[in-house]
Structures
1.
Amino acid sequence: MVTAMRRRGFTLIEILIVMTIVSILVSIAVPLYQKSVIRAKESVLRNNLFTLRTVIDEYTFDKKKAPQSLEDLVREGYLRQIPIDPMTGSDKTWVVIMEDALTSVDQSEPGIYDVRSGSDRISLEGTPYSEW
């Protein structure tokens, strides 16, 4: 008596269908993941800018003059360290905006008035990060 051997496994068509479904799901998931990563970085950037601007104002109010560099904020204990710009990945790329000598608190020594991101990329809103 000859018994027929049954082969177990998937056919080529079944594997192709599964691979097609997986590739469709991946093509949908990857862009959503990338946007969520960018949104998270934008949120960190907003928070870092708010913190830096608040600390610059506090320093200016306390010392009666604006800081000359971001390192002054660390040296005087207003920050533990300069935050990293999440769009550039460095704490050295912040763009500082110096105050006008005529409108500064201490006219003999104008200092930092504002700080912006050093990134040249555009946000999900359509505005450059360097304008935030």
Note: The longest helix spans residues 12-63.
2.
Amino acid sequence: MHQDSSPGDDEGGRTVEAVLFDFHGTLAQLEPLTRSVSLAAEACGRKLSGLSATALADAIGAQGWLGSGLEARVRPHFADAWADRDLDEESHRIAFTSLAEQAHGVFEGLAGALYDRLSSPEGWVAFADTVSTLMSLKAQGYPIALVSNIGFDARPVLRHLGIDRFIDVWILSYEVGFCKPDEKIFYAACHALDVEPSRVLMVGDSLADAGASRIGARCYLLPHTEPGLAVGLDAVLRLVRAGC
């Protein structure tokens, strides 16, 4: 989805000078949930059969676990933590462990171990076209900012995936104090890169990412894609070359 809503196209001289990227669903995806569940269970001292791991992963995914594509089933007892999950590290942990704990079949300690997997570098997989796209952008001189709604430090994850070397500016919601689609988070990225919003392309996978259009930026939204596959980032190179 290419969302083009910025003024000034008829003036002819418009170019893209910097690119903002979302993290989850854009540059990387969580490993398959069945694998996470199996490894989390092992961390708790349990060895699950393939069938049991799949059934448990399905139950947790149905609660709206990150990457499931489903709306989270938030209960009142952790609603406050859920609301603040991308603004506070402890709230993020409480929100996701509570979400997992309510799934059928989850045993003691599994939710915490599953969260540890979610927040660990080893729990993530880069999309097949991530590194090549970022490498091409940097070779062409485009500064890059990571703009993410997240409640833990993404730097170790991206370092593990070989992506951090391409990031010039890190705008993480729990560090800056506001989340997408709030205009302030996009302004913070533009200010840090010293570039006008009208000369920025925001690449993401959700309507929250499209909030960048409110400050005059261009937006390109990617489809949901399974871990390790190509997500369509090659289109970003065509868009910046064309000036969007």
Note: The two ends are 13 Å apart (CA to CA).
3.
Amino acid sequence: MIRIFFPAEKPKLKTEGGVEKIFCPIRKKWLKVIPEEWVRQNIILYLHLVLGYPLALIAVEKGIQVGELKKRFDVVVYNRDHQPYLLIECKEMKVPLSEDVLEQVLAYNTVLRAAIIVVTNGLHCAAVKSENGKPVWLSELPLMTDE
């Protein structure tokens, strides 16, 4: 497992009409704070501020067609050639990173074909890439490069 050390900067929060909201810098809107959204917004800040990924290369909660089913991925980071590079599935902190979670994101990747698949519950990540058709587990998430 990869331990995540979030940056000092935290997501923007506000209370509106008695509802706590969190700002998504990708979608540029305020969303109701639910546990999974909290993880999603913190991982976006981590990708941007710690790993150096430009916000312009990050997509959040977009619809995809997986076989006959319409699904939504959590986060995709594109490389500079605009190809899916990281596919990230976010779960709330109390959800363990299980084989079921990995199978969910693997199904999404049959469509997206990202180079690296990541599952996170905000506390830990598991990341895997394929080398010569075999899974290789990563010990850390990759930094943004100019490649």
Note: The chain is about 20% helix and 35% strand.
